[in-house]
Design goal:
Number of strands: 0
Shape: elongated
Radius of gyration: 37 Å
Oligomer: single chain
Number of helices: 2
Structural class: mainly alpha
Helix content: over 70%
Distance between the termini: 88 Å
Protein name: RNA polymerase subunit sigma
Largest sheet: none
Amino acid sequence: MSLKGVELQIAIPKTFEAGKIADQAQQQVSAQQAHANEALKKEVERKQKIVNTSEGMDEISEDEDAGGEYLKGIYKKKKKKRDQQEKQAKHPFKGNFVDFSG
């Protein structure tokens, strides 16, 4: 297929435009990857800082220890009350008998 002079006047500029568009698309993809990489680095750094700041909280003073014993007592009472409610909820024979006769 041969191109005439008039056709070349239109075809050549369009080739340059297509090349520019392809180059821009490639640069945009690489910029998006770089942005995603930076966001990932920031997220990892943030998670590392959160872990480091929370490690200092494991020290317990005597006041907090006494409060912990108080909370244990409350939890035991709640568990005991819940167990009693479960025992009261079970009926000795309701729901256990199935009548298969028509």
